[in-house]
What we know:
Number of domains: 2
Organism: Tanacetum cinerariifolium
Shape: elongated
Distance between the termini: 68 Å
Structural class: alpha+beta
Low-confidence stretches: 108-114
Domain Tf2-1-like SH3-like: 97-161
Pfam family, one: SH3_Tf2-1
Keywords: Nucleotidyltransferase, RNA-directed DNA polymerase, Transferase
GO molecular function: nucleic acid binding; RNA-directed DNA polymerase activity
Amino acid sequence: IDFGKGWVNHLSLVExxxxxxxxxxxxxxxxxxxxxxxxxxxxxxxxxxxxxxxxPEIVQETTEKIIQIKQRMQAARDRQKSYADxxxxxxxxxxxxxxxxxxxPWKGVVRFGKWGKLNPRYVGxxxxxxxxxxxxxxxxxxxxxxxxxxxxxxxxxxxxxxxEPLAVPLDGLHVDDKLHFVEEPVEIxxxxx
Length: 193
């Protein structure tokens, strides 16, 4: 919000405008959610007739500033949404598509040699059994993942373009219910004395 060096004078109006703007998360204004009624703002003073007592210039100036603040807040929201939308991509999954499931190594586990870099980031492929809402899918996963719930957010899935023989096996992985796995050394290849 650009008020030059006099922004401190308008801080109370900014706060007033923010508290009386519609919030999509609570589906009301903050004032309305707190007190259960709409706030009587300077914008509605003309309807009541109070501007005769206060002065039409002050009411007009306050109304213009509130409208200007609301427009600038909306512009800031739109700008932030455009930044967020650049990183967002909509993923449409169909039933019977094949997907890889993201797994994570446990934090704090000692890594051995280069094995840490070669850990599988995704396991699978798995078939999608059904869509649960817009952003969740139910997968057909094997017995090794029986402790894991079979519904996953789309951010944990990656479309599988490879054939079945190129799949990452679950044989050597011990995955817990939070999709974390423990890295274990396989063998000691060489040692120095």
